[in-house]
Amino acid sequence: MKKSITKTTLATVTMLLFLSVGFATAYDKLWDVSYSGELLGVQSRSYSHSEATEPDVACDFGNFGVFSYDGTDWSAVGDWDSDQVEAWGSATGSLNNMAIDYGTKGLWNYDGTDWTMLGSWDPVSLEAYNNKVAVDFGAQGLFEFDGTNWYKLGSWDPEQLAVWGSDQLAVDYGSYGLYSYDTTNGWTKLGAWNSVDIEGWYPTGQNNQLIVSYGKLGVWKLESGMSDFVLVHDSGTPKWILTEMEAWGDKLILNYGASRGMYSHEGTGSVTTLLDDTRNPTSMMSWGTRLICTYLSDNPERYNGTDFADIDTEYNDKILGASANYVYKIRNQGASQGLYKWDGTTSSAVSTGWFPDEMEGFGN
């Protein structure tokens, strides 16, 4: 019997302590020195953005700082070691709005020219949605910043954030369940189970969907505007445990590990197709018409919907991320170690000897 998870609005559950006043409220205590700690005495930084062309990626090079790369040249963005970088706002996909987490030095925004300190708390995670940035401040709660004001969304500590539907924010609150937030309807409880992974999916010709992996309970999907979850892949009882999933265009790729294989789901009921029963990628990434797969001890591959092929045959490179123009990868073998870019045909060195800790690609 197929299990159905019925979503319930917050009005029907005892959740009054979760939100300050029921919905998002203006919140200015991130600027209150007596509340959030010293603001470091620094409100701007001296680096400027001087690229003639739009940047392709921003890379965190640890103690060397954050740099942007336009496909040809590098430009210094800031010299602090960042923890995470997120493109956000109406200019998401460009460097015009970058939220950069500098750990104990606080959360900053870089607009391509100037630095602004957004707050002195240390974020746990950042998620761009609906021209805003949602910020999980751990025990301090979940907040959003719209470019001018802070709003407190809730007091619980999220485990995961994901964007889905029409600019909705899915929030996994662990044992409290799975919730969705949008500025029109406020909070909606989607399910009581503790999810393992959540991801938004936007297949052509179908409603936007939220995909949820519940571990031994299987992988489920909720279509925008619907009330019940539907099982994505009926693998029998007990359900197979998912290793990883990736929304790739009109397909949802499910990897169940070496013993089960990779499957493709195209949005109809619980129908899935075996893609490959020998491969077990450690990570998968959507890049246009290609699915990029990284392996523990083999060359990265691309899948084009028909077959798999090596991106490079000589090196066991590790995929770091992608922009609209390139796939970026780390090469730590051979004489020419460093950061490389792949344009879909050939690879070329971007930086020799430097290995980014993290990157944010634009337009992918």
Observed structural traits:
1% helix; disordered N terminus; 364 residues; 1 helix; mainly beta; 5-stranded antiparallel β-sheet
Task: List strands and helices in order, with pairings.
Blueprint: E1 8-9, E2 25-26, H1 33-36, E3 57-60, E4 66-69, E5 74-78, E6 84-87, E7 98-101, E8 107-110, E9 115-119, E10 125-129, E11 132-136, E12 142-145, E13 150-154, E14 160-164, E15 168-172, E16 178-182, E17 186-191, E18 197-201, E19 209-213, E20 219-223, E21 230-231, E22 244-248, E23 251-255, E24 262-265, E25 272-276, E26 283-287, E27 290-294, E28 301-303, E29 308-310, E30 318-322, E31 327-331, E32 338-342, E33 347-352, E34 358-361
Antiparallel strand pairs: 1-17, 2-13, 3-4, 3-34, 4-5, 6-7, 7-8, 8-9, 10-11, 11-12, 12-13, 14-15, 15-16, 16-17, 18-19, 19-20, 20-21, 22-23, 23-24, 24-25, 26-27, 27-28, 28-29, 30-31, 31-32, 32-33
What does this entry look like structurally?
By secondary structure, this protein is mainly beta. 1% of the residues lie in helices and 41% in strands. The protein has one helix and 34 strands. It has one helix at 33-36, and strands at residues 8-9, 25-26, 57-60, 66-69, 74-78, 84-87, 98-101, 107-110, 115-119, 125-129, 132-136, 142-145, 150-154, 160-164, 168-172, 178-182, 186-191, 197-201, 209-213, 219-223, 230-231, 244-248, 251-255, 262-265, 272-276, 283-287, 290-294, 301-303, 308-310, 318-322, 327-331, 338-342, 347-352, 358-361. The chain has a five-stranded antiparallel β-sheet, with no helix packed on it. The chain has a five-stranded antiparallel β-sheet with strand order 2-13-12-11-10, with no helix packed on it. The radius of gyration is 21 Å and the shape is globular. Residues 1-52 and 91-95 have low confidence and may be disordered.
